Sequence to fold (272 residues):
Amino acid sequence: MPELPEVETVRTGLEKAIKGAAIHKVTLRRKNLRIPFPVNFTTVLQGKTISGIGRRAKYLLFSLGKDDVLIAHLGMTGRFTVTNKTPVLLPHDHVIIELNDGRSLMYNDARRFGLMTLAKQARLGAHPLLSALGPEPLEKAFSAKYLKQELVKRSGPVKSAIMDQKLVVGVGNIYASEALFLAGINPLKPAKTVGDKSSELIATIRKVLHDAIASGGSSLKDFVQVSGETGYFQHHFNVYGRGGKPCFTCGTPIRSTRISGRSTFFCPDCQK
Fold:
């Protein structure tokens, strides 16, 4: 599933490509994705100008002037592409947004776990999809004091804690494994025992996310950028997906296990 760096990469690409464009026509090729499209979806979008594209957690936020916002989530296989020509429609092209300059914004989603819905700008923070989310990991609200206060409340594995979207958003499975390796923290360790390493953990989470964004995200299966290119951060993994292979730091075989149903990778020598 695309994580924060992948969604941020898509956001950046879309903003460069379509910010300022007006929507001429919207075509829906089905009634729903993960959830139904709002009944007024096409009429609200038609004629609006895309004034900016933001991100909250893994949600893309298309500002449509001052009042309306299109909320989009990529799910597992969702992708946006911009085409300059009359598009040749593929089986999983579910939404076609024709722009006033002749281009089209296409949304393709083979598994249909993504979503699109509408919100009012003035009430965006209270929207059910967004209201319970924790702070952004790259912003000041995600502080060492805050993280320590949250970790000491939890007896489960620290990896599960930092993947909880109510504690902090966007630190998915790949980046949690990589950040914990850089911080020297065993992912199985109880969260309440690592509060004193909150500063180091925040620093490594931010480093991993910044590096991944700079690399265009990670392409393991389905993810591609708006341009159609794949991401490159998977070539820099220290532990993720490297079970049984030697640690780059100490040579110890990387161990794999499952935490909360997710594959987890760590070095038993470097991570205590």
In short: DSSP finds six helices and ten strands in the chain. Residues 219-225, 230-235 have pLDDT under 50 and may be disordered. The chain has two domains: 4-126, 144-266.
